[in-house]
Design a protein that fits this description.
3 copies of one chain form a homotrimer. In chain A, a hairpin with a 7-residue loop joins strand 11 and strand 12. In chain A, helix 1 crosses helix 5, helix 2 packs across helix 11 and helix 5 packs across helix 11. Chain A is globular. In chain A, 32% of the residues lie in helices and 14% in strands. Chain A has 12 helices and 12 strands.
């Protein structure tokens, strides 16, 4: 049984198959309209996220399936002290596949230990949100015709943005991709990520604090929001903020075929006037997110036929504890191990960094 | 593409077609049970309203369609600062038609600017709630056999009741309708409405503060609640309240074929003992509301066939800014323009009142 | 029209038919997958209970029906002062059958007065929760092959546990059943229940405070939680709590074919390590709960065919006020009669206890 908890749970070849299937769904929707007849998806949202929930539910309906919808767990069994593992095990008595969102990092990894049905991570705190990355890559591939040989700019909060990290990791496996990181220095890409995701693999990148300077060379611009809360010094925020707002003037600096993505919701980092520009692809990205979730549900349920995944080493590794684990209490206050009963407190060695360990649930360094 | 944001978005002839279709749905339900197969309705309720939401959802299910249900947006994207326009545009990537409810007046009018699918206003603050009016008129037509040549009493809070205003406007277009407005003077129909809706069109009406005196002449009695909160002087409320409660004793004063409507929920303004009286039609009204929503969904989706709307001038005018608009900040604290990004602050001249302008979003006079 | 508000609304013979139907659903699921096509279940949860709601919704979907889902009424019509009776009457205009959960005891009994469709009690405060009992008895019958001639241990909070009381009452009608009540003295079975449910019918039982001593003789162990809040003296709770936690060590004392049930959610009263033991049946119980709800929905909708209920005396008695009722205000602060408009305040004589009356809505002694 396969699950999707983080985007590198799938190999590049598997992601290609998923995108091929998505293309086919767009081309032949009538072929899939009863594909999940009699199947049920449970959307277990321990915290609300309307957009993501509706995307999963629309996906399941377009496949002819049913949905058991939980838009918020705030006042339910979870509040009565039930473990995430029990909740997921119970949901598996009702549904054939589960998409879960949880405010605590690592929660779906705890759930994977006991689930009897395929599990999709629809976001666990600041940790992972792999189906957003699926939407991103399908949009790039459909709009640009390829995922390789692209200059990809990422702008805004590159320090905390989980969708940024996931997209960089995912695209770094493709040939000829070059990254341009555009952010204030306070919100730059973490050094460690640059090192392991890019430098070790000889993937070229540059860093700048100027969106205007970076724009002319980009094939793809991935916008995110620069949040006021990230700044200790508000005067610094005030001085910077407008430089990371994409408007009609800045769009004039971009190539005629540069595409603009954004994981949404936006607040003010893209002027609504840009929406009418054909290069603005963030609403297409929403649509593509639904299609990729359809492809994902089909694949995990084993209903993708020839388009499904072969058995892979990566699949076999999923859910197994890494070698060399030691007992250790995680210090991340948002880690699921802080509250979940019956979850062993374990840390795994970080490859290439002797003596450094990470929590096996939330990946926080210990 | 047609939308329904306020009841006069449809002409009297269009409303007649909608009621004809509703009659046919009641007569031949099996004919419609798969009419919306593969279609999805999103019920975007930015504030909860269980009754209205369930009515829309039941309607869609009886047409064989699917529902993407959002019962409350309180802790979702909207809370993260997303605009109503973005939320509706995203929902249009998932659903084929949207019913939205919003606490801010004018919100669906802002959404109409960007929506890619038909939009139904399921209530925007104190502004409009047109599908309630659809339920009202179908009930009158089915129970009385006609919408014209009726004496219609409206009782209770006539000052603030949006369903009262909408029903009066709607029925005032029918021949031979006479209104009797029954309320304490503090809650009487607004002068301006009496003028534009009735006097200018020579529609007869009378006003009284006595339900008992008015009852014997009525063909239709539309009850609403007199809310304590509306009174500055509570002793006045205490003195008045019982006179606007419909009970078995008062029902004896009514014609044998007078029908009683109420938009519900009621609190105590109709004694539950009246429910058993065959003239009490408020639960039939609930049922008819579901049927009219079915007819509406079919029509807006273009699935009503010959029963659909022809192209009309009124349709063409929908969504266009009126002539003579000027820039002006609305002073209504509940207007969507107070918070929505990228929404121009505009006011339109009020016909027949030189120098008077109304907000184009919430209709508040400026 | 039949309803299920408490488990003894059905006779033992009717419960047997329901379990036979459940067995057939498990054996031939494809036979039932369209059985409720075009039907709608409303899950009216005035307070949230995700597990129970999802179980009903999964049941309806597996029968091919639709669901109108209300996960919480907190900020809806109910908050505007609408009566439970009005809400249920309105829901009956939308749905073919209603499952309702309400924090106030007796609420579904008030709703039964006016409902136009079959009604299922999905829990009313501490009063009744009959579909949990349906899950319990199906699990016992499927795992043990019978409901009679069993030694049934019930452990934990036997004083307040509504599912305990209901299961005892239900099994006490079967031949050869013997009960072992395992609890601290503070949480023992109420004397009155022992008297009327067991002693008067000559059903044998024993009482003990030692789970370890009781375990070896049990065919069925029904675990519940010992809640800290039930103890005035916390040191007493601390001293006791571990003795009512089922772990691997205690499981060694149980028969090889003793089954363990739990209504869930659990907190820590069953060690998760026990889950892997084949005698642990609480997740099967969850699954069986869904199946019994399918059987129940089919039966109440009159779609069970030959497996349906015959007309019975018990059915005829349902919803009728008992003889000898007197007017009396209930003193239970959680009784629906404290807030519901238009509900007569009535008490009925308790059989065999001259001069003692119980509230007809919540059964509280007056």
């Amino acid at each position: 049984m396969r699950h999707l908890l983080q985007s590198d749970d799938f190999t590049a070849a598997e992601l290609d198959r998923l995108m091929d299937l998505a293309d086919d769904i767009i081309a032949r929707p009538e072929h899939y309209k009863n594909a999940c007849e009699g199947k049920k998806l449970a959307t277990l949202f321990f915290e609300p996220s309307t957009r993501t929930r509706l995307s999963f539910e629309a996906a399941m309906y377009e496949l002819g399936g049913h949905v058991l919808s939980v838009s918020s767990m705030a006042s339910s069994s979870a509040a009565k002290g039930e473990s995430v593992q029990d909740t997921v095990r119970v949901a598996g008595c009702y549904a054939d596949i589960i998409a879960m969102r949880h405010p605590q990092e690592g929660a779906p990894y705890a759930a994977r230990r006991v689930t009897t049905v395929p599990l999709i991570n629809a976001g666990d705190g600041a940790h992972h949100h792999p189906t957003q990355t699926l939407a991103d890559i399908l949009t790039i591939r459909r709009e640009k015709g390829r995922l390789d040989h692209l200059t990809v700019g990422l702008c805004g909060d590159l320090k905390y943005g989980r969708t940024v990290h996931s997209l960089v990791e995912c695209l770094s496996e493709r040939a000829g991709v070059r990254f341009v990181f555009i952010s204030p220095s306070q919100l730059a890409m973490p050094e460690q990520m640059l090192h392991t995701m890019l430098e070790e693999k000889n993937v070229p990148y540059t860093q700048t604090d100027s969106l205007e300077k970076a724009l002319p060379e980009l094939d793809v611009l991935y916008m995110t929001r620069v949040q006021r809360e990230r700044f200790d010094d508000l005067s610094q925020y005030e001085a910077l903020k407008d430089s990371y707002v994409l408007d009609l003037a800045k769009m004039k600096l971009a190539k005629h075929d540069c595409i603009v993505l954004h994981p949404l919701p936006r607040v003010n980092e893209i002027d609504p006037q840009v929406d009418a520009d054909p290069r603005a692809c963030y609403f297409k990205e929403v649509y593509n997110g639904k299609i990729m979730r359809m492809a994902l549900i089909l694949t995990l349920l084993g209903l993708a036929g020839g388009a499904g995944f072969a058995k892979s080493e990566r699949a076999a590794a999923q859910g197994k504890l890494p070698e060399g684990c030691v007992e250790a209490q995680c210090s991340n206050a948002h880690c699921i191990s802080q509250t979940e009963q019956g979850l062993p407190h374990l840390a795994a060695p970080v490859p290439g960094r002797p003596g450094v360990y990470r929590c096996v649930w939330c990946d926080h360094l210990i």
